[in-house]
Amino acid sequence: xxxxxxxxxxxxxxxxxxxxxxxxxxxxxxxxxxxxxxxxxxxxxxxxxxxxxxxxxxxxxxxxxxxxxxxxxxxxxxxxxxxxxxxxxxxxxxxxxxxxxxxxxxxxxxxxxxxxxxxxxxxxxxxxxxxxxxxxxxxxxxxxxxxxxxxxxxxxxxxxxxxxxxxxxxxxxxxxxxxxxxxxxxxxxxxxxxxxxxxxxxxxxxxxxxxxxxxxxxxxxxxxxxxxxxxxxxxxxxxxxxxxxxxxxxxxxxxxxxx
Length: 259
Ligand SMILES: NC(=O)c1ccc[n+]([C@@H]2O[C@H](COP(=O)([O-])OP(=O)(O)OC[C@H]3O[C@@H](n4cnc5c(N)ncnc54)[C@H](OP(=O)(O)O)[C@@H]3O)[C@@H](O)[C@H]2O)c1
Prior knowledge:
Layout: E1 5-8, H1 13-24, E2 29-33, E3 43-47, H2 56-60, E4 65-68, H3 76-89, E5 95-101, H4 110-123, E6 129-134, H5 138-149, E7 153-157, E8 160-161, H6 166-177, E9 183-184, E10 194-195, H7 196-206, E11 212-216, H8 220-227, H9 243-249
Helix pairs in contact: 1-6, 3-4, 5-7, 7-9
């Protein structure tokens, strides 16, 4: 029988789709959450906390691969270290697949710096691993723009996004998890690089609104690094689901199911 694949953050935005995709492929899945969740056919839920280490030894026991989709916005490095050490103690050397973000080495945001440090920790751990950096997910871009879209005149900073759908990222992660460890692989981006103005227009159109947009400078050091395109992977426009498709599916409960 095939070895189990552990998906950390199996309840999260990305992890949920990874679990669903693995289950559809009939791969034996174990999923980690801090909460106790009921196991179902094909998915064994295990409770554990990567911040405290509770239950992580049980979570990693006997698995051949870990797809690490959990994230702790304040303790990313510590939680990755907990996972790596638990895997070492288990006497296994599972293939660790880590999802990171395009531009973590260029954008001076605390969370990005922690993701970069986590990448380095994994690369130096001696564990077989694969690291995939993805561009911003559709939901994040929508959240960022939705705040501005509530104003009578919509401010749009002068930078671009390349939003990607979690289904596309999940498909790539599963493909990588089923292959040999490759270290850091090519970045994974959404289908198109688009200005914030263009994306804001798409968001307004999806909600039947028509408002004036006003271009504003990208604020601060972080804004300036976004303005240079450090968050983009134009040569890897691999995703297929567009921002408009994603917006059109919102509110339809079955829309995010595995396709
Ligand atoms: N959002 C983006 O635009 C974007 C872009 C590129 C890459 N990424 C990366 O993609 C990954 C997944 O992001 P996401 O947006 O899917 O995250 P998310 O929806 O916020 O999910 C985070 C998951 O982490 C789990 N978690 C949090 N703290 C934990 C802890 N201490 N111990 C165990 N589990 C814990 C949560 O599970 P429970 O609450 O069930 O415990 C939850 O399932 C992250 O590494 C992120 O950096 C995100």
